[in-house]
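FAQ: What does the model actually see?

It sees only this:
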Amino acid sequence: MAAEFGPNQEQVDALLARLDFLNQEGAMFLASFDSDDSQRRRARDAMRRAAVTGGRGKELEAAQRKVEAWVDRWFAGGSQISGYGRDVTPAEAAARAAPPVLDAVGALVVGDLLPPDTFEVLTLAWRELGQKATQTLGAPSTPGRTLPKK
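And it is asked to produce this:
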């Protein structure tokens, strides 16, 4: 099988697989992170530069398309949830969660090309969601930075 997402295929696949189990509450948790925060914007720019200079632009785009497809699946509807004092549809929850998910999946695609602090900024929301799940459900936490051995 070709590495659609580059040398960090396994880590990207693991994150994408976990999206199938992300519920509306988890999506709202991810949505609570400020996607326009200046530190995240700088980290996102660094991620994009790393993809271009590292020759992984296509891999980044492929991973991002998978996240877009995940968001699209939520638009099929479903019951509304109450979030932040108003009703939020499943699609709204997924759309609001998309920026931190895109950040995390992008960070994994180019993780070996990023400084550790940039990687940490991009994956913070996803890692905290994993920690929250571990605390409340006893579920395995979302793995941190694990890169392939060279």
